[in-house]
Amino acid sequence: MTQVIKEKDNIFSAYKFISRTREGRDPAWLVNLREKAAVAFESLDFPTTRVEEWKYTNVAPILKVQYRESFDPDPNGLNKLSAGNIEPFTFAESRGSQLVFINGSFSRGLSNLANLAAAANGCVVSNLGEIPNEYAIVARDHLAAYADYRDGAFTALNTASVSDGAFVYIPDGNVVETPIHLLFISAAEGPVASHPRVLIVAGAGAGATIIESYVSLSEEVYFTNAVTEVVAKEGAVIKHYRLQQESERAFHVATTHTHQERGSDYASYAISLGARVARHDLNVALTDENIETTLDGLYVVTGEQHTDSHTTIDHQKPHSVSNQLYKGILDGRSHAVFNGKVFVRERALLTDARQLNKNLLLSADAHVDTKPQLEIFADDVKCAHGATVGQLEDEELFYLSTRGIAPERARALLTYGFAEDVISRIKLKSAREQLNRMVLDKLHQSLEVE
Amino acid sequence: MLEIRNLHAVIDGKEILRGLDLSVKAGEIHAIMGPNGSGKSTLAKVLAGHPSYEVTEGEVIYEGRNLLEIEPDERARLGVFMAFQYPIEIPGVSNANFLRLAYNEKAKSEGRDELDPLEFDDLIREKLKVVEMDASFINRSVNEGFSGGEKKRNEILQMAVLEPKLAVLDETDSGLDIDALRIVAGGVNKLSNQDNAIILVTHYQRLLNYIEPHFVHVLYRGQIVKSGGKELAVELEKKGYDWIKGASARV
Prior knowledge:
The structure holds two protein chains of two kinds. Chain A is an alpha/beta fold. Helices cover 23% and strands 36% of the residues of chain A.
């Protein structure tokens, strides 16, 4: 216990730092929120593997590192980064609608909202710390309303540290065709901890496509502790791409909370490729009727990587549909965890819930722990869930070899084929192509795929 | 082109081929017939290099080289092709990507230019005609959700793309209705020429109504027990394999 407190004091003093540096610059409600979260953080312990939800993911290595404060926007001359430096991480469809953060700090120079200004009436995409006055009430009403800082130390720490972050507000009835890219880049020399915060609010009948990506310009050890909240009001349609491509020495802990109202349609595509240790919790509350929820996921880990995907789909009312497909590819001595809970509450009659987790092990030393869980308290529902763990099929490899395809290429082709159905669901062309390349590169494959 | 001498092959400790001899020259079509369990499919798989089969004795010389020492993918690039009795489904890999990769691997090994997707598209459209297949075929995942007939046609499409010197067709006629059989056989006939050789492995004579072999061999208990012209197939059809079994027992 003494050990834990010491770690908290030494390493995670960010929120103290932020309250000093931003004194007098933030609105009272935000200062108040940070203070309440800080109090909560002081009383919370970081989870150990004795906690059921963290059984397979040991956060101790994250806490051992001495991180630097990351709130100086220019600790290493990072503001000198040019558009060229970050170009590989951007997408053709969203170069005029991107918010860029470096080590958690908003970069005005690299952000570009030119395409949104013309396209979207009343749509607000801004740094959380600089929300126009007339929309501050939206942020105040929704920020930390879904990700409860009293529930866990990581969320509390993030909330206690809120300063810069991404705020996306799509007013009622407004459909924004241009995808909006929220790009979080880690680039410091030496270990930094950053606490990215995202709030997305789509009004009634609104529509948006959001890409949230976490990338690295360095191969350093650092820590990203991200919290994202998504609100889909009545009839809103949100496509949410989440790409985690951190340095393979980095730590990434993130939580996404999505709140869906009547008739809304939320589709999440969570891609996890990077980090030494990665954990993503995705919690979706289906709070009313006729909701559609799609959770697709792909994790690819090699070497000593560890990735943990925890999802909760909470059907609270009748007539909603959820579909989940998470696929994993594991090589080397990597370890993956999938834990997917589907709740069908007593009132959630006529729920249709499907959940599937499939894993492909490319190495005898790779390891996966998968636990799909259904908890049904209602009658007259359609629910299915399952998990598989397999290897490349010898007969498939032989078939390809009889067509002149060398063993390594055959393995690449079959591995790609395994992931293809998740990748092909990504409708954004450049994101899909980039993902194709990244997945194949990651597996040391040079296969050319159309 | 192909010389098989005293070939013995074992799977799971069981000897299936027991001293098989066969000689095939360019321009020839050979039919290997025989009852179930005689070793027909084993012969096809040994020629393709299936890792589950162990050759314990004998030799296979292909174009002057010891075929048994060559890896399956290298055999394919050297012009050996096997059409599978049960073609494998490969989810998530489009027929187009698969065929182009296979084509380019062979082209590369022969020092020819590889084709980009557009160039390959032109080529594949010509090849599709050989098996009377629709262009939509090539955008589907390899064999996934294909009917039995479509899978066999897809095998012949691959043969058309790869233009092998030696094609071994393992029960390509099995499970085909009469229309599919006509198309598959027609495709094989179009691909047969003076420079290549085809070995048809089949249980039934009916395929030979469409593809006329130069030689018919009867395989029984892992050996070729009788060889002849196409009339041998007709005789087998009339008398059944019991005639061979009886004859073989007397030898």
